[in-house]
Batch of 2 targets.
Target 1
Amino acid sequence: MGKRGRKPMKSDSNTRLEKSRESARQCRHRKKLRYEYLEELVTDREKAIIQLQQELERIRTICQYLDQNGINNEIRQELTQWTDDPEIATLIK
């Protein structure tokens, strides 16, 4: 009785090796994309934090000025802009 099925050939091992290499390349590429995405997320959040810090500093300056001098036209305009902002308006009401 003979053996059943295909006989292993050298080209099969070469094909397997090439598939393995291709899979490894794809894995490295996915890993690179994942890290790029995470880096972009971190950068965006850092920008948002900086923007919030600047806004907070601006508010602190306004409050300090109000404590010292009272309200002037520039501050009135700033407060008017804030009340026109839909996000802030919902917080005030």
Note: The chain has a mean pLDDT of 83.
Target 2
Amino acid sequence: MATVRENVSLLFKLYCLTVMTLVAATYTIALRYTRTSDKELYFSTTAVCITEVIKLLLSVGILAKETGSLGRLKTSLRENVLGSPKELMKLSVPSLVYAVQNNMAFLALSNLDAAVYQVTYQLKIPCTALCTVLMLNRTLSKVQWISVFMLCGGVTLVQWKPAQATKVMVEQNPLLGFGAIAIAVLCSGFAGVYFEKVLKSSDTSLWVRNIQMYLSGIVVTLVGVYLSDGAEIKEKGFFYGYTYYVWFVIFLASVGGLYTSVVVKYTDNIMKGFSAAAAIILSTIASVMLFGLQITLTFALGTLLVCVSIYFYGLPRQDTTSIQQAETASKERISGV
């Protein structure tokens, strides 16, 4: 009976990872199409804000189905959202940290060469693994650590683009760039693992946690809209440049966000990283057929590294999908002596 449960659990995790990978790959392809085909480009900041709103509405809908009645839904929202400002503040941390990460990544890209940025930013993968070990009291085997760094190298090669000469001279501050990329990498690892810890440290519904986080996310993205494109949005309108394809991209981003939370809940952030790498490869292969993109040697080598790293990380190992508790039994034996 236990074996059957384990097999069902494994199949469910594989299903979540597969769907997340496919959604992420489709999103990347659709996003590339909208940014290259639409004559009047939309404001990406407004798209991010609308994505947060849709994720919030979808989470409320799923919670309504989970609770079974409108009355229970209201009670759940009143107790866990309106009546729990402390929990709201707790879930606002990832939103704020992700906002800092995005700004630091942009600052780093402005002060570093594109190639240097591509390599250093992938350090967020081993940083996530390190945060997982430190914050969730987990252990990774030597093979798993090797596979994590192999994944880091593989993603770097897959996304590698040769530097292009330009006549425009841009003043850069490498020291500022490396400082910004270090902060962005730390923020990426911390925010993801922090959210995982909050999800797995209590019996609160996943969808309640999502609602708490998306509420703060809406506030953060609205601030970003105002600071980045406020003047232009006043002139052209909030939905300037929106087409059916743009709405499709926003919908995919929303569904992908929900599946990401499911993956974090039932697997972990490291597996999410492997899934994201697989999505990059799938979207690039699809772009070859749809947009005439050419496969390079570095992409082929990177794909090989990613596949090998996924295989090695998936070898039989200790379960890392639940927070490990301290071994109180061994401590009791030591104290007894």
Note: The chain has one domain: 10-315.
